[in-house]
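Cross-posted from the bioinformatics board.
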Amino acid sequence: DQQVKQNSPSLSVQEGRISILNCDYTNSMFDYFLWYKKYPAEGPTFLISISSIKDKNEDGRFTVFLNKSAKHLSLHIVPSQPGDSAVYFCAASARSGGGADGLTFGKGTHLIIQP
Amino acid sequence: DAMVIQNPRYQVTQFGKPVTLSCSQTLNHNVMYWYQQKSSQAPKLLFHYYDKDFNNEADTPDNFQSRRPNTSFCFLDIRSPGLGDAAMYLCATSNIWDTQYFGPGTRLTVL
């Protein structure tokens, strides 16, 4: 039972355009969401996060939007650059449960930026 | 540079032969995690340590054990690896409720 779903295994976008990566979740206890970027042969690198008390968080070219009622979040990259080509993982946690908590990941979306 | 280090990067073992994967950190984080990622799958949490407190996920097989002798080091022991245990093993660290930082992973092959 996948609690975090990334339904697009891959996405191809032209350089300079907007990349939109989507993520859906089913567990209503999740209250903190993160995006990680992963290059081949490297570990995931933290990109951006959002708490459930917000609906938007921005960091440079990266913006994450959260729609709690739809249990949906998206990552926007504007403008897309060749170095953005990587696998992007959506992850979630239920921080309000107390203690340290692991992350529940989606399967990832492979973003390919075309020149 | 502060970082999470995993050794070895690639590990080959034989079916049933015990293997130990290592993770160390210079971030002084109090939580360390082990994830398993099989090909084209989501990383899956196996267990984590909050300081010396060990927390096992309910569906982590008994074949997987972990040790954390001090703040900096954490080990993943696979007592009798099966073919289905071939995967990328990712170590991550964080301060409690803070962002998790990942190491480069160890790719385990079981022959």
